[in-house]
Every structure is written in structure tokens, then in C-alpha cells.
């Protein structure tokens, strides 16, 4: 805003100088002096944004314009409106009053100067309104930016707190699981092992005096040990997640992360009994899908990727297909060769097709 107002003042000062040269007046030194004083005072007005000092300087500038108008050159009156409008800055109700005040000199100055003054007052009033509107808009945008920055800081802090909460929750869940596992081993297995140990100690004492009783105690210890071993097996079986859960959940997590990172939809469906897929087969499927997605994101320029897992009677088929540009002549790089080697390690194979988009099919034999 200050830049526009100062530019308007400089234009008027240039006009005054030009008019003075054309009029061939003789008091040049006073003209230069008044212009320099006026320029310095108004430069100070631009430096002081707000406060009493700025108001005092504006009044001083008005006085300079008035005195110069009376004593030096009549065109100095053109500088008056802008200073009057500056008095009404940040005072919405005073703007129109200042416009009325700035028009009053028209009735006291005669000749062509009155017309020029009227046009100048009207033009600079519009200039002042535009500058004030832009200043208000800039201030609003700055406030919006500040608020956005604060919101981002708040969100960042909240995100950090949520991440910390998740880490603490995971750690707590691990501790609870360890505590539960420890208690379960103590309750189900500890008592069995203690009972077997007591039976063995008793059999040891009766071994030379009552062999029949010692034999009975040894058999009891064997039965208790078998029961304990079975409880250990059942406990570990219940703790260990089935391979299909580990594989499918890990795969879904990979697909969600890839879709979010690259902003591309990835559809996933599966058919058949996933229990038939072993750990090593899940590992191959996961790594081949990862390699296929990597190639798609780098080269295919696709907008959609579909992934299907079919568990058939004799084989397990995994297909990764995109709707990208495809490739008629396929050159097998390290990625495709690596997928083929992984599949071949369990007597499987990989089939790639680039005629309609790009698809990678991994075929693995189903183990009975």
C-alpha cells in the first residue's frame, strides 16, 4: 500500500517539476527545497507504519503542501489529497469524509488548476481505495498462512503423539503377550514337569527295594512327560499364526502402502483355500508381487493395477496386471530373471505378457 501511495506522490512531484519548467518561473531554489522537504517527510511516513509519529508527519506534509501552494507554486495543492487520505487510513468511516474535505479546495482555486486538482483528488481516492483493499487482502492471506502454519504444527504434534502412542501400545502388547505366554507355560507345563520330576525321584528311591512300584512310578513319569510335551505342542501351535494369515496380511499391508505412496488404485482378490500355500510359497509370491509393482510404478505409466491369487487343484496362480503402455518385445532384466529363479526353486514358472498392458503370472505347484 505504501509503495502505491509513494508512487503517486512521485508522479505528482514530477508533474510539478515539468509544469514549473514550462512556466519559466524564477524561484527554482525554493521549489527544489520544498520538494526535497516534502519527499523526506513522506519517505518518513512510509517508514513509520503506525503510531503518533506517522500522524504528526502526515500533518507536517499537509502544512508543507499548503505553504508551498501559497508561496512557491500553485500546483503544490495537488499533493494535498493523498496526505488527507492517509489520515483516514485504518478508519473506514473517515474515508468519505476526507474525500469531501479534499474536494473543498476546488471552490477556492481558479482556472484550469481546479479541474486538474479535482481529477487528481478523485484519481488518488480510487488509488487509495485499491491500495487499502489490497492491503486488507494481503493481511487476510498472511493471517490465513499463519493459521495454516499453526494447524500444520498442531497436526504434526498430534501425529507425533499418535506415533508415540502406537509404539507404546505395541510395546505394551508385547509385554502382555510375553506375560500371558509365561503364565500359560507355568500353569500348563510347569505342573506337569514338576509332577514327573517327583515321580522320578520316588522311583529312584524304590529302585532297589520295590522294583514293581518303581516301575509303576517311572511309567507315571513317562505319561506325565508325554502329556507335558503335548501341552507344549498345543501351546506353540496356538501362538504361531497360520501361514495364510501371515502371508495375506503382509501382502495387504504392502499393497496399501504402495497405493498410498504412488497415488494409484490397486485391487486385490483371492480364490480358493489359502491354507494350501506354504511359507516358502508365500515368500515367493510376496517377492514376485513386490518386483512386479516396482516395475509397474517405474515404467508402465499405469492408472490401475489388479492382483489375483487363485488356489487351483494342482497349482497356485498369482497374476499382477496393469493397464499401462505394455511392451510387445520383452527384454528380461534382472527383475524378471529373479522372479523366474525364485519360482523355479520350487518347480514353478513365471509367464510375462506385454501385449495388453503388462501382466506377470507366477505358477507354483500345489503340495498335497
Automatic annotation (TrEMBL):
<dbReference type="Pfam" id="PF07730">
    <property type="entry name" value="HisKA_3"/>
</dbReference>
<dbReference type="InterPro" id="IPR036890">
    <property type="entry name" value="HATPase_C_sf"/>
</dbReference>
<dbReference type="GO" id="GO:0005524">
    <property type="term" value="F:ATP binding"/>
</dbReference>
<protein>
    <recommendedName>
        <fullName>histidine kinase</fullName>
        <ecNumber>2.7.13.3</ecNumber>
    </recommendedName>
</protein>
<keyword id="KW-0902">Two-component regulatory system</keyword>
<dbReference type="InterPro" id="IPR011712">
    <property type="entry name" value="Sig_transdc_His_kin_sub3_dim/P"/>
</dbReference>
<keyword id="KW-1133">Transmembrane helix</keyword>
<feature type="domain" description="Signal transduction histidine kinase subgroup 3 dimerisation and phosphoacceptor">
    <location>
        <begin position="177"/>
        <end position="242"/>
    </location>
</feature>
<feature type="transmembrane region" description="Helical">
    <location>
        <begin position="96"/>
        <end position="129"/>
    </location>
</feature>
<keyword id="KW-0808">Transferase</keyword>
<keyword id="KW-0175">Coiled coil</keyword>
<dbReference type="GO" id="GO:0016020">
    <property type="term" value="C:membrane"/>
</dbReference>
<feature type="transmembrane region" description="Helical">
    <location>
        <begin position="57"/>
        <end position="84"/>
    </location>
</feature>
<dbReference type="GO" id="GO:0046983">
    <property type="term" value="F:protein dimerization activity"/>
</dbReference>
<feature type="coiled-coil region">
    <location>
        <begin position="131"/>
        <end position="158"/>
    </location>
</feature>
<dbReference type="InterPro" id="IPR050482">
    <property type="entry name" value="Sensor_HK_TwoCompSys"/>
</dbReference>
<keyword id="KW-0597">Phosphoprotein</keyword>
<keyword id="KW-0472">Membrane</keyword>
<dbReference type="GO" id="GO:0000155">
    <property type="term" value="F:phosphorelay sensor kinase activity"/>
</dbReference>
<keyword id="KW-0547">Nucleotide-binding</keyword>
<feature type="transmembrane region" description="Helical">
    <location>
        <begin position="27"/>
        <end position="48"/>
    </location>
</feature>
<keyword id="KW-0812">Transmembrane</keyword>
<keyword id="KW-0067">ATP-binding</keyword>
<keyword id="KW-0418">Kinase</keyword>
